[in-house]
Amino acid sequence: MFMYKIGVIGDKDSILGFKALGISVFPTADYREAHKTVLKLAKDNYAVIFVTEQLAKDMDETFDTFKDQLTPALIMIPNNRGTLGLGIQGVKQSVEKAIGADILFGKEGR
Amino acid sequence: MAILRVNPTRMELTRLKKRLKTAQRGHKLLKDKQDELMKKFIELVKKNKELRENVEKELTQAFKDFLIARAVMSSEVLEEAIMYPTQRISLELGTKNIMSVNSPIFKLVKQSSEDNAATMYPYGFASTSGELDSAIFSLQGVVEKLIELAQVEKTCQLMANEIEKTRRRVNALEYVMIPQLVETVKYITMKLDENERGNRVRLMKVKDMVQGQ
After folding, report:
1. Taking the domains of chain B in order of start, what are their residue ranges?
2. Whole-model pTM?
3. Domains and CATH numbers, chain A
4. What separation in angstroms does the CA of B28 have from each of B33, B166, B178?
5. Which of A76, A85, A101, B88 sees the fewest Cβ atoms within 10 Å?
6. Close Cβ partners of B70 (under 8 Å, ≥ 6 residues apart)
């Protein structure tokens, strides 16, 4: 069966550990460069691309591009300075989009 | 509600009635689809939330471990140590069809680059610290969950899109198409009836005139 790859994009300090596990890492601190990397990886049979939230916060466009495609799945992960809450925000957004109101996080929001 | 611009003929009436029937049937089917999608989505998104919270916690912990490992070793030694991994992680991609939404199924495949690789650690233990070992061990544990999260989250996004699309269609049918068609059918029926009555009156008048002579 055809094999797809996994990639991680983020600041070097956070993601270097993934390399030891045999996952391709693409260290960068610049979101424009990360954007280009994502586009490149998307063509190169990467099925899942993890992006740190620190980079992802400026990459809305990139995320929207791949939102309705099967692959690659762009997934936000926290970096070594902890989470910005963007990943959960993304879940919240899809709930709002689908249902029209936020029913999962009702207690916390508003 | 505005009516469609059509000729009030019997043929048009039959055509519109047929369209109305199709629209109603389509509306019912779409509505059922929407309900089912919603049910599945809510189930999935709850799982997504839990999974994400878990993964974020674990990953943050793993990163912390790694940070400590980085702190006690020089970065050159560390980079050298993990430069050539002994295993490769790749994915098998399957698809599952949930209510016409094609969602991905990721399966993790680990391949060792050497057949007799003793450990998952790609370095000798002489020049590295114990912290690095534990950091990599905890990362290893998170990866599997990360992949599951990726699968669930992607499915959620795709389903959210599909639900939005379906909802638009249902609403368009329910609030625009169907009322328009109903209205137009009514208009044509009225018009035809009116013509019929007009015709009858004319005939009666003509009959009177003929009898009067």
Report:
1. 10-205
2. 0.82
3. 5-81 (3.40.50.10580)
4. 9, 12, 12
5. A101
6. A13, A16, B78
- What architecture (CATH level 2) is domain B10-205? Orthogonal Bundle (1.10)
A52, two tokens: 């740190």
Ordered DSSP codes for B67-119 = HHHHHHS-HHHHHHHTSS-SEEEEEEEEEEEETTEEEEEEEEEEEESSTT---
Nearest to A67 among B53, B78, B161 (CB): B161
Per-residue pLDDT tens for B97-143? 888 888 888 888 877 666 555 566 767 667 777 777 778 888 888 88
Q: What angle do CA B3, B6, B8 make, to 5 degrees?
A: 100
Question: Most A CBs within 10 Å: which of B37, B93, B132, B138, as the mutation test of the A interface?
Answer: B93
Q: Tokens for A62, please give them.
A: 């990139």
Q: Which of A12, A13, A24, A70 is best to mutate for the B interface (most B CBs within 10 A)?
A: A70
ipTM value for the complex: 0.84
Phi and psi angles of residue A68, each rounded to the nearest 5 degrees, phi first: -105, 20
In this structure, which amino acid lies at residue B93? L
